[in-house]
Amino acid sequence: MQMAKRYTRKIFDMFQKEVLSSMQYGTMLKYSEGHTQVYIVKRAGDSIKFREVLYNPSDHVITCSCKKFENKGIPCSHIIIVLRNNFIDCLPEYLILERWTTTAKSKIVYDEFGVELQGHSASSTWKGKKHLEIARGFTECLNDAPIEVCNAAKEMLNDLQNMKASYGACGSNNPLQSRSTSIPSSVNVYPPNISKTKGSGKRLKGGGGRNSNGRDGKEENLQHMR
User: Fold this and answer.
1) Are 100 and 73 in contact (CB under 8 A)?
2) Cα separation of 128 and 117, whole Å?
3) Range of the domain at 125
4) Which residues of 64-79 are buried (b: 16+ CB within 10 A; e: fewer)?
5) What is the C-alpha to C-alpha distance for residues 84 and 161, in angstroms, rounded to an integer?
6) Each residue of 49-75: pLDDT tens digit?
7) DSSP class of 196
8) Which intervals carry biased composition (Basic and acidic residues) (predicted)?
9) Is 148 a residue whose pLDDT tops 80?
């Protein structure tokens, strides 16, 4: 009931699947080191595959080797079963990401790079994703990069900062936006140019044309029918 009221419908359905899946697992305390307990989590009947869960009962900090929470932001079934076996019926607050809750639209949420995520604004969400994509791209590019690449990246960053300053912090002084485009009050429409081709301008005899006597073809046909 706790998460049914806090998670959005879609995220709650995903969380429910993890809860149901957790019932298929068993836990075994492997060892304790200080305040940290290390559990082995295995599916019933599976003697090979297992997950390792680290749990600190003093502050309820818990992590799993599957890294599902770190990657998707939803507690995995392994974490859920360890918490349940330690008589923890409610998820610790840090396991409930604000961006998956029903109140996320009324609050400002930041990702791990400090980029603002707002569910109610499609443009801000797209912008935040772009920031994250670019930041990750730079990080991957600079990992183990030679000094020349690092210097080039630093120069590029300086150029981007100067460009941002010239455009204004929020884009309000964007010189592209200050340009005006005049719209004409009227538009003149001219007939298309007629190109002369062989045979153009000749009227076909019969139906609607005139015969050699100058009489209209339709009129002559009516007289023959009388």
Assistant:
1) yes
2) 6
3) 108-167
4) bebebbeeeebbbbbb
5) 50
6) 899 999 999 989 999 999 999 999 999
7) P
8) 213-226
9) yes
How high is the mean pLDDT of the chain? 74
**DSSP structural state of residue 41:** E
Return the residue matching tokens 């305040």. Answer: 35
87-101, 103-117, 157-171: lowest mean pLDDT where? 103-117
Domain boundary among 40, 64, 97: 97
Kindly report whether the global pTM for this prediction surpasses the value 0.85.
no
Phi first, then psi: give them for residue 70, nearest 5 degrees: -65, -35
DSSP 90: S
Structure tokens at 41: 């989590």
- Show the tokens assigned to 187: 């538009």
Report the pLDDT value the prediction gives residue 105, as an integer from 0 to 100. Answer: 64
Tokens standing for 149?
A: 């690449």
CA nearest neighbour of 77 among 18, 128, 165:
18
Residue 78 sits in the same domain as residue 116: no
Domain boundary among 39, 66, 97: 97
